[in-house]
Design brief:
Blueprint: E1 14-24, E2 29-34, E3 48-61, E4 64-66, E5 76-83, E6 95-103, H1 104-111, E7 113-121, E8 126-133, E9 143-146, E10 152-155, E11 158-159, E12 170-176, E13 185-190, H2 193-214, E14 216-224, E15 229-235, H3 240-243, E16 251-257, H4 266-269, E17 271-280, E18 287-294, E19 308-313
Parallel strand pairs: 3-6, 10-13
Antiparallel strand pairs: 1-2, 1-5, 2-3, 3-4, 5-6, 7-8, 7-12, 8-9, 10-11, 12-13, 14-15, 14-19, 15-18, 16-17, 16-19, 17-18
Length: 329
C-alpha cells in the first residue's frame, strides 16, 4: 500500500501492463485495459483498470519524462502500481495507484534492450523479432508482431518505409492491442539511433515547456515557523535538467496544490522567497533526491508537512493556466 507522506521502498510495487484506453489528464488519471496473462481466469480477460498517478508518479514516453496528456490513447504501457486502500476482509487488493508508466520504447530503453529483426513478410503483415540486450543476451523465443500500412516508420529526422526493414536490424517499436491480438500490433517503428534521439528530444522539449509553466511537484518535509522557512522534497516526475535550475541564493515561487498536483490559481497564489539551501539526499522511488530550503513571504496555511506544492525557479514565467486546469475557477 502507498502510504501518505512516504515514498515507497524499492521493489515493493506490482508490475502491471496494458493499453491506455481513457485519460483524465487534468487530474492525472486514466484507465488501462490490462494485458492477458496466465494468472487470470478467461472471464477476467481485458478488464479495465481505472488508475490515478501517485503525486510522485512519473510518465515516460519515447525515453523521456512526459505528462499523461502526451500519451496517445491505444499506447501499450508498462506500469508499477500500489494499493490505495487496504482491502476489506476476504477482498482482493486493487492496485490502482501508479508509481510509473512507460511506453514500450521507454521500457526497452530503460532495460537497454532492442528488437532484432529476424524476418519480414510485409504482404502477410508479419514481423518476426527477438528481444536482445545490450550485452548480446537474447530472448529464448522470437516474437511475432503485426505490421501494415498503418505503421509510422521513423528514420533519421524523417520518415522511413516498411520495405527498409531487414534481418539483423536493431529497432524499437511501440505496440497496441497486446495480448488481445497476439503479442501486439505495431504503431511506430524506429529504425536507427538518430530517429530514436529525435523522438526523445521532441517529447523532452514539450515536457520542459509544460513543467516550466506549471511548476515542479513536491511535498513539504518540514516548516520552521520561527525562521519562516519551508523544506520540500522534489518528486522524480521532471527531467533532472529542470531541477538543476534551482540554486541557492536564487529566488523560488511556490503554489499550493492538491494530491493531483492541480493548483488553485497559480498566477495569484504563488509566494516568493530566496532559496537558502539545495540539499542532496538519498533518492527513493518517486523522490528525485533533491530538497529545497526556501523562505517564502509570507508562510501560508497550505505550507504544512506532507502537503503538496508546485515550485517555480526564479527565471520561470508564472502565468494563468487554462480554466479547466485550475481548482479555483
Amino acid at each position: 500500500q502507498a502510504k501518505p507522506g512516504e515514498f515507497p521502498a524499492v521493489g515493493t510495487g506490482k508490475p502491471i501492463s496494458g493499453e491506455l484506453i481513457a485519460v483524465d489528464h487534468v487530474d492525472r488519471k486514466g484507465t488501462l485495459r490490462v494485458d492477458r496473462n496466465d494468472s487470470q481466469r478467461t472471464d477476467d480477460y481485458d478488464q479495465a483498470l481505472p488508475f490515478a498517478l501517485l503525486p510522485y508518479g512519473k510518465v515516460m514516453l519515447h525515453g523521456s519524462y512526459a505528462e499523461l496528456r502526451d500519451v496517445p490513447i491505444g499506447t501499450h504501457l508498462h506500469g508499477v502500481f500500489y494499493v490505495s486502500d487496504a482491502p476489506a476482509k476476504n477482498q482482493k487488493p486493487v492496485f490502482n495507484r501508479a508509481l510509473q508508466l512507460e511506453d514500450d520504447f521507454s521500457h526497452f530503453t530503460r532495460l537497454k534492450k532492442s528488437w532484432r529483426v529476424d524476418a519480414v513478410e510485409i504482404d502477410k503483415q508479419k514481423l518476426a523479432v527477438t528481444g536482445v540486450a545490450e550485452d548480446g543476451a537474447a530472448d529464448a523465443k522470437p516474437t511475432a508482431l503485426v505490421i501494415g500500412s498503418w505503421v509510422r516508420v521513423w528514420k533519421g529526422k524523417g520518415y522511413g518505409e516498411l520495405k527498409e526493414l531487414a534481418a539483423g536490424q536493431k529497432i524499437l517499436a511501440n505496440l497496441t492491442a497486446c495480448t488481445l491480438k497476439g503479442p501486439g500490433r505495431v504503431t511506430d517503428l524506429w529504425l536507427d539511433d538518430e530517429s530514436r534521439a529525435v523522438a526523445r528530444d521532441r517529447v523532452l522539449a514539450v515536457h520542459r515547456q509544460w513543467q516550466r509553466e506549471h511548476g515542479l511537484g513536491c511535498w513539504v518535509e518540514s516548516v520552521d515557523n520561527a525562521a519562516g522557512t519551508v523544506t520540500v522534497s522534489l518528486f522524480d516526475i521532471a527531467d533532472p535538467s529542470l531541477i538543476k535550475e534551482f540554486k541557492a541564493k536564487d529566488h523560488v515561487a511556490a503554489a499550493v496544490a492538491e494530491e493531483s498536483l492541480r493548483t488553485y490559481d497559480q498566477n495569484n497564489d504563488v509566494r516568493r522567497g530566496p532559496v537558502l539551501e539545495v540539499k542532496q539526499v538519498p533518492a527513493a522511488p518517486g523522490a528525485s533526491g533533491v530538497q529545497l530550503v526556501f523562505q517564502p513571504n509570507p508562510l501560508l496555511e497550505g505550507y504544512r508537512p506532507k502537503r503538496f506544492l508546485r515550485v517555480f525557479s526564479g527565471g520561470w514565467r508564472i502565468d494563468d493556466l487554462p480554466r479547466e486546469e485550475r481548482l479555483y475557477r
